[in-house]
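Problem 12. The chain below contains 446 residues. Write out its predicted structure in token notation.
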Amino acid sequence: MLEAITSTGIGRRILSGSLANTAGIGMSAFAQLLSVPILLGAWGAEKYGIWIMLTTIPMYFALTDLGFVQAATSEMTMKVAKGERDAALEIFQSTTALIASICAAAVALLIGIAAAVAAMGYVIVTQNMQLIVLLCFFSAFTLLSRLPLGALRATGHYALGTLVYDFLVLLEGLAALLTAHAGGDFSAVALCLLGMRTVNMAVLNMLLSRQVPWLRYGLAQARIREIRRLFKPAIAGMVIPVALATSLHGTVLVVGAIVSPVAVAVYSAVRTCSRLMIQVVGVVNRAAMPEVAKAFASSENRSLGAMLSMNGLLIGAVLLPGALLFAAFGKEFVELWSRGSLSPSRTFVSLMAVATLVHGAWYFLSNMLLATNSHVSLAKYILGASAITLLLAVALGGSVGLNGAAIAVISGELLCLAATTVAFLSRYRDGGWRRPVRSDSAERKN
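Solution.
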């Protein structure tokens, strides 16, 4: 079955995208490896934990991307594969107008909420209002920068767009770490991040203009009907990163409130290390997503089956051994990484390794569904799993500490795996994807 990939240009495109993702993972890992020792050295464990807590809520905004960016990218990829440039332009301009409007409203809302919380006497929020404002704008700019990145990926420039974006994010992270190392406080680091993200947006937009001149910004081709058509897959697509944010970052707030800021630092370090395996598997998984969308649009079921088999093999060959290695040596790695400042228990590390293994399995399946906007049925189940994760973290965190938080994360990941497996099997049967009865042209008429 894999001949369907190697005998066509699909293999070459997946390879180039995978190499770009590999470079991106290397750059991300480099920045992450530097971040913990530098920030711990500059601020100490307690202050570092407070930084993580304060950055969690605004980062939810950037992490979720509201679903519309992913939905629009998948839809544009399928339109371009069928030669429908005008339809792809409508999607791009409609999504850009919507995301810009939502970003403006969300920034105002988040700042308003922070001001209200500060007025209630929460000292940490009161003392860091400037930081929160800067992070809100940074989160909005992060979301906006994904629009040109998605457009590049949808039009056959996956490797180029990924390399440029990840390199700019690396420079952004290094500049922030340098600012902290030089004595900068929270606000100085956030201001540095915001300035570098502005540069990121400018470079990506210039690259898009040069590589895909017909996919231009504007409102002339924006259509309400496109937003309505993308609404369901967009909202459902938002569930995936929201679930990730709730089970991982949301637990940070619970740990900080119930245990301590130092425990937050330990949890964050272990979580970051364990997620490196997900990034390794995602090298091929993410690079295959545009090809899955193209094969789906062209009804090439043989190529679809081959790409699914390839990604499944990678899960077994990389993720499982990686989880076992992390369970065995993760404690020592975190201690070495933090220069002895953080020392997680071996039980906690092992539990987080299990959570990572389960997460990798359902995240792979969800990406295959996301690539073709076939993920709508997942929404309510994954949202429920996310809520259960937080409730269990609250219930177990107070009595079992970090181990309780890890058990809560595992429980949520198992529920997500069950829901995603059912949704995937209902869409992929007998070597092919089941397509909606209504055609795209019929939807446009309605």
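Discussion. The CA atoms of residues 258 and 398 lie 6 Å apart. Students who got a different answer should revisit the alignment rule from Section 12.3.
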